[in-house]
Design brief:
about 650 residues; alpha+beta; TIM Barrel; Jelly Rolls; 38 strands; about 15% helix; globular
Length: about 650
């Protein structure tokens, strides 16, 4: 009998047993089901950028809530982006190979994040995926031997330098896959003695997510290359339908929701309290298995650690994007995740005959058992229930009949240990509150972290940065690169250290490709003066930008600058004061020319109400009235060439 038919029958039997007269769930040690492979998160698209800038002890406390077993989310899987110095949602992550001969396994923060996750949980499963690639790869074509070698080099660097084993790697995030490249990557990994397995194909188009299943039936080499099939946002919440067909379920391949969200089926990102984010995620985790046959779910992202005026704000299980304050928020999605991760480990087995749906779509439940012991756990949610639910549980097949520990989360309780039950003759009963999430288990060791954050505070003003206290080749605190890479290097034509944009060849993009710029500050700033020294090297232009009210370049794929006021100066001395806004033509507010030169210039923008003054080398070149952008952050930027910046400052007006 095909696996999908057996699964369907088991689910029907479970529903019949539950909704019979005795409402009994039978936990049978002989029950069969797929192997649980864990819950995890995807640190990518620069979503974790600001976390590394947090001071201690707050940074470690945040990491504990994410990764420490028995404390918070206890994530069991961490996927990170293989950076390429190209915007991949909320910024650009650094490449470890900016040329064929370049090998730097300490750029950026993903190495650090993997190390911290592994230090807290040595059993965490590590994974990688590319969003883009450096421009030298494959003559501009990502699917190439260059890219396969690039991925292999990242994996070897993780092992050699950071002592990390990358168990899985993907192809190209949310882009049509190339079966020839999948096989090429597989051969490259094997030829270099790398045991990392391939996940394919991380697609979010519902009609194409599982195309590779049919392709593998026709191509044995492709089937041998793919260890797991991962898809993004597989559930259409409006219809409650999954893209997983019976044929897909019967394929014999591991099936993962390799990027997911409590955002109601790919719609707007939502708040993370129990009423919205937590309760949705409680449903997603259970339904992903019951309806989608997914044995792993990965959330983008582990933490919202990027500025809110970037794309897809509030994506994380936690919230921490003001490192200067140390403030963070432990949200309901952390505890919705903990209700599974603290009660079952990768390698446990689902018990399909004890998993199913409550009557009237009132909720769901999944049961899992340990392969090493008699322990078991049940995760049950009553999100759609309007009244208490009474159930009987019967234990059979050699499973533990010891004490059953009950944990509960809802709008009144947050991951609370609410009861200890003693089965009698292998049975017990319990009444479940409506709109709640429960874990019942024979295991121990669960816990709820108690660390508290300091209060949130605004971005500090006045702000000044001369880059003298940032290590060479590193990114200064609080600056978020949106394309290219801004690092501290020795200054040209002056002493000391400067901020330099170093990427001179356009990368292979994943999405929009704006000019390189790096931003920081506060979205609420209104009247202020921002200034910076700037030196174009191979770049043709330099720019300073203020009142940035949106830097979501995905709002307009053709935009070169964020939405705000831009003062740009070319090498020949021509300058423009621009008002830029997404999906709106750029408006030139003033223009002119200053003496061309090869040295440093000072650029400044001053905002007071609707008056905007532009200054170059201490001389005011424009004073205009304009009200399109009333408040926002600031940035410095350039084109795809080398340029340096120094003595960046912001003060109130």
């Amino acid at each position: 009998m095909p696996m999908y038919i057996r699964t369907l029958l088991v689910t029907c039997i479970a529903s019949f047993v539950l909704f019979g007269a005795d409402k009994t769930i039978v936990l049978d040690g002989h029950a069969t089901g797929r192997t649980y492979e864990g819950l995890g998160a995807v640190s990518a698209g620069a979503s974790s950028r600001l976390l590394i800038d947090y001071p201690e002890p707050y940074r470690s406390r945040i990491l504990d809530y994410l990764f420490k077993p028995g404390y918070g989310a206890a994530l069991q899987h961490l996927k990170v982006e293989i950076g390429a110095d190209v915007n991949s949602t909320d910024g650009s992550e650094p490449s470890h190979m900016r040329s064929r001969s370049d090998h730097d396994y300490n750029r950026g923060y993903e190495w650090w994040l993997m190390e911290e996750a592994h230090r807290r949980n040595p059993n965490i499963i590590l994974d990688t995926l590319a969003w883009g690639a450096p421009g030298w790869i494959g003559g501009g074509h990502l699917y190439s031997q260059d890219m396969a070698s690039y991925v292999a080099d990242f994996i070897k660097g993780a092992k050699r330098v950071h002592h990390l084993d990358i168990r899985y790697t993907g192809i190209w995030n949310e882009r049509p896959y190339d079966p020839a490249y999948v096989k090429l990557l597989h051969r490259t990994l094997l030829n270099q003695g790398i045991a990392t397995q391939i996940v394919c194909c991380d697609d979010y188009h519902r009609d194409k997510q599982f195309e590779v299943i049919a392709a593998m039936e026709r191509d044995p080499e492709l089937a041998a290359a793919v260890a797991a099939v991962g898809v993004h946002y597989p559930r259409a919440t409006a219809t409650d339908q999954y893209s997983t067909t019976p044929k897909v379920k019967a394929s014999g391949k591991k099936l993962w929701s390799s990027e997911d969200q409590p955002n109601q089926g790919g719609g707007p990102f939502v708040s993370r309290d129990w009423q919205v984010g937590g309760r949705i995620l409680a449903q997603v985790y259970n339904r992903n298995y019951l309806q989608g046959a997914f044995t792993k779910t990965e959330i983008w992202s582990p933490i919202t650690s990027y500025f809110e005026n970037l794309a897809a704000p509030h994506s994380g299980l936690m919230y921490a994007n003001t490192p200067w304050s140390g403030h963070y928020e432990v949200q309901g999605t952390i505890w919705a995740t903990a209700h599974t991760t603290q009660f079952a480990q990768p390698g446990w087995q689902y018990m399909d005959s004890a998993s199913g749906f409550l009557a009237g779509n009132a909720g769901t439940y999944v049961a899992l058992k340990s392969p090493q012991s008699q322990d078991w756990s049940v995760v049950l949610e009553t999100v759609n229930a309007h009244a208490p639910q009474d159930f009987q549980f019967r234990i059979a097949g050699g499973l533990s009949t010891g004490s059953v520990h009950v944990w509960e989360t809802n709008s009144r309780k947050t991951f609370e240990h609410v009861a200890d039950l003693t089965p009698h003759n292998g049975a017990f009963s319990y009444k479940f509150d409506p709109d709640s999430l429960y874990s019942l288990t024979t295991t121990t060791g669960q816990g709820k972290g108690s660390a508290q954050p300091p209060p949130d505070t605004p971005f500090p003003l006045p702000y000044s940065e001369d880059f003298e206290h940032t290590a060479l080749n590193h990114t200064p605190k609080y600056l978020a690169d949106q394309d290219g890479a801004f690092e501290v290097h020795s200054c040209e034509q002056r002493a000391g250290r400067c901020l330099e944009q170093v990427i001179t060849q356009k990368p292979i993009p994943w999405g929009p490709l704006p000019n390189p710029f790096t931003l920081t500050g506060d979205s609420d700033w209104t009247d202020y003066r921002v200034s910076a020294d700037a030196l174009p090297l191979s770049a043709n232009e330099i720019a300073i930008i203020g009142r940035i009210d949106s830097a979501n370049v995905f709002s307009d794929g053709k935009a070169l600058w964020p939405s705000g006021y831009v003062l740009r100066v070319e090498k020949n001395g021509a300058w423009n004061l621009l008002s830029t806004a997404f999906k709106t033509p750029t408006r030139t507010l003033a223009s002119g020319s200053v003496g061309a030169g090869t040295g440093w210039s000072n650029l400044a923008l001053t905002f007071h109400g609707d008056q905007i003054n532009a200054t170059i080398n201490g001389k005011q070149v424009a004073s205009v009235h304009h009200s399109a952008h009333k408040a926002g952050m600031f940035a410095v930027g350039t084109d795809w060439g080398r340029a340096q910046f120094d003595n960046v400052s912001v003060r109130r007006q």
